Amino acid sequence: MDARSTYEGQSRFNFYLVALAFSLLGLAIQSFNKSTAGLPLYIELLAWLLLLVSALFALSYVEWSSKAQDLNAVTDKLEQAELQALSTAKEPAVISGQATELLARQHGTAKRLRGQEEALAKALKSQWVREGRKYGIAKWSFLVGICLLATARVLQYFGGAVPELTL
User: Fold this and answer.
1) Which residues of 73-102 are buried (b: 16+ CB within 10 A; e: fewer)?
2) Contacts (Cβ under 8 Å, ≥6 apart) of 147
3) Considering its fold, how many domains does the chain have in total?
4) For a tag on the chain, would you pick the N or C end, based on fewer CB atoms within 10 A?
5) Is residue 147 a part of any domain in this protein?
6) Each residue's pLDDT tens digit in the chain (167 positions)?
7) What angle do CA 130, 67, 22 make, to 5 degrees?
8) Domain encompassing residue 109
9) Is residue 69 part of a domain?
10) Does residue 166 form part of some domain?
């Protein structure tokens, strides 16, 4: 399995989760019982809010992960260009004024590409940390939202009465 097919599988899974979060939110709103009052109402509204937060953060994560794939492709092209510049600089050549100038230019290009690659890698790493947080928020708000939605529906089913705990 190569990196491209792995990325495509992960991307499809992320799209599925975004669609699932939005679909469950729509279904929950559509099947809401308008006569609900009290604690089940507040729990259900909180569940809707968490599902919306989950869907929006997941959508943001999916959008950025596609941009990250493009940035990874640029990084790969920079690496290839650097290797090509270094390999041609190491080839034996008849040393003349033009050849020396060409080698110096290729060496400068390779240095500049290496600097750009390092800056891009550093920016990409810090962005991945932020996106990892977004993914965590999306995941946990989805799970808590589903649990709250189920709790609200169970409370509605039993008439909204919350049994008192006596010790």
Assistant:
1) eeeeebeeebeebeeebeeeeeeeeeeeee
2) none
3) 1
4) C
5) yes
6) 566 677 777 778 888 888 899 999 999 999 888 777 888 889 999 999 999 999 998 888 887 776 666 666 666 666 666 666 656 655 555 555 555 565 566 666 666 766 766 776 676 677 667 777 888 888 899 999 999 999 998 988 887 555 555 65
7) 75
8) 3-157
9) yes
10) no
